[in-house]
Amino acid sequence: MEDRSPPPPPTMTTTSSHQDSDADTSVNFTVKFSGRSIPVAASPDSSIRDVKSLLQPLTNVLPRGQKLIFKGKILDDSTTLRASEVKSGAKVMLMASQGLHQGEGPILKAAPAQPIVRGTNRSSNVAKEKAAAKVDKTHLERWKITGVVALAERNLEFIPDEVWACGPSTRILDISNNSVECVPLRIGSLTSMQKLLMDANGLSDQSINWEGLSSLKFLTVLSMNQNDLTALPPALGAITSLRQLYFANNKLTSLPVEIGHLNQLEVLKVNNNRISTLPLQIGDCISLVEVDLSSNLLLELPETLGNLRNLKALHLSNNGLKSLPGVLFTTCIQLSTLDLHNTEITADVLRQIEGWEGFDQRRRSKHQKQLDFRVVGSAEFDESADKK
């Protein structure tokens, strides 16, 4: 979990005739959580609920999953810091309920390849790496005939030269579960490539030549799950042939506005990242059918999401969301799968959104065998059926 500095304390209004003390204008206290000491500053009239909202981006624990304990007593959401006798210098303990976290972060799985045996000098290392990556003639001939270059789980640290020898014959390149750290400019020589699968490698922001990728005019599937990417460049928007895009389990903090150029994109999966905001241009991806944004740091969604009239499945679990775009149910009339597990959105909130009845009818029709959807008071919205 990456460290984040706390948000600034709420602005207080003061006048020269009323010189309030620090204790009256701001309460500066410490929250103990998971071995950390988190400094918090808030108005003494802030409710405990407000404090939990401040703690959410600092701890990734949703407010309803937090228990604040002071002097052996669990603090009630409706009370204020003043009423709870929490003063500057106080120490408050935070206990988190399991499973009520937003943005679980990257889940990196080690490739099942055997470790590379390295020599004692650089020349020996290079020779052994080239030997390990050597492709026999039979494989090369098969690749050229079928167009499928299958190199998953081969303990590779770079893309073998034989791949480039296939040139325009290559339709699918699968080098998942290796230790490849570079996508060179030469990737553009595979001019007929339709699918590029590079899950679970060592890819970073600087190791991908996007100029080469953006020249692939027939690329429909790009999968780079489980790498070490923190940002996607504007050049992504140049690959307008894309229909499926997979960047789950990385460290992305945002999506480029140029993603709106991908108007043929049907599947977008960027779950388990650190994304806190979505660009308005996401609404320009008018062909989207399935979107997975689960386990990120989203607090709100843009209204332009309602432009996705072909959307059928939207996964939003494990985020800090408290509401949905007001037009979602009225304009996304094909939406039948909505996963809101471990968010702040309750059934009461959903029922107040225009078009809810139509969506609810669609989801019930889709899951006729799992109609135990029950609402008790303001219980959270349960879409467990959509997980199966």
TrEMBL record:
Residues 1-11 have a biased composition (Pro residues). Residues 1-25 are annotated as: Disordered. Residues 27-98 form the Ubiquitin-like domain. The keyword Repeat applies. Keywords: Leucine-rich repeat, Repeat. It comes from Eucalyptus globulus. This is Ubiquitin-like domain-containing protein.
